[in-house]
TrEMBL record:
Residues 8-160 form the Diphosphomevalonate decarboxylase-like N-terminal domain. Keywords: ATP-binding, Lipid biosynthesis, Lipid metabolism, Lyase, Nucleotide-binding. InterPro entries: GHMP_kinase_C_sf, Mev_decarb, Mev_diP_decarb, MVD-like_N, Mvd1_C, Ribosomal_Su5_D2-typ_SF, Ribsml_uS5_D2-typ_fold_subgr. Belongs to the diphosphomevalonate decarboxylase family. GO terms for molecular function: diphosphomevalonate decarboxylase activity. This is diphosphomevalonate decarboxylase.
Amino acid sequence: MTTATARAHTNIALIKYWGKKDAALMLPYTSSVSLTLADFYTDTTVTFDADLTEDRFELDGRSQPTTKISAFLDQVRALAGTKAYAQVASANHVPTAAGLASSASAYAALALAASSAAGLNLTPRALSRLARRGSGSATRSIFGGLAIWHRGTDDASSYAEALPATTLPLRMLVVMVDAGPKPIGSRQLMANTVATSPYYPAWVEHNEAAAQAMVQALAANDFSKIGELTEESSAQMHAAILASHPAFTYFQPATIEVWHAVQAMREAGLPAYATMDAGPNVKILTLAPYVAAVKAALPAGLTVTTTAAGPAARLL
Ligand code: ADP
Ligand code: DP6
Ligand code: CO
């Protein structure tokens, strides 16, 4: 028996990934840029055991279906040249399937734990490529702080890497509108957006340029540019989703309420920008000195977690 435990943190995209060019290899249409978060993470233990007759998967103490996990473990088994089945036990310190990127921390932690337990010693880049096969957003969660996922053109060239740290004291406020599971998973909805949204080609063209602009804005420590690009990438992704067939949005009334509050904050001179993922929850990007004022200007009654840049995936 060989075992390893890894922790990986979630990341929130400032420039979004939405849509696969190659679903089997998990190659995205566009590059994306993210911030790995300190306060949300997944711990996963993988044990390869020659006595097992099938893979087993437990999440937060409950037995789960293994189809997705087994397909991922097959990649690891192929790399390591082993046939042994595995016991996977995972704990999410983030709501599952709520649009807070549990699939990112999950597959980054699984990539590191499973490859280590299988005796592989992968480079961060190879780990990033492996994590990509489990969930696109996981590609970036191998790295701490800011990361860019280069879309690439094949398996070898589609990976993430860390971006230089900004001198800005970036903070992210996670405003919980609904911690429950989303009505449609990211995977299914992004495929439908690609297939049916007339806005999708425009999204691809604009978002790729936005990823490069974000790298420049981060290097220049230009917070208003970083914020504008962040809010616009999210808005454009949700516009493409809204224009799909059938028309759909993850937004709930409180999502819009918080977004309007953020716009009012800016009119009042507060540097705050909103970004929403595949779910109704809102993340607000701001700077440390403004956190208290942003919180005070939010609608009452919503749970808010203030977080900052978190570390890279690591073995425990
Ligand atoms: P999210 O917004 O949370 O990333 P997704 O729809 O992208 O939502 O992914 C949710 C799916 O990710 C879950 O249904 C499950 O299949 C998988 N997942 C979440 N947490 C874990 C975990 N700790 N280990 C393995 N898979 C996980
Ligand atoms: C809106 O990585 O969850 O959070 O690759 O199918 O597993 P799969 O989807 P997933 O999609 C994330 C979409 C997003 C934007 C982002 O994280 O870049
Ligand atoms: Co996800």
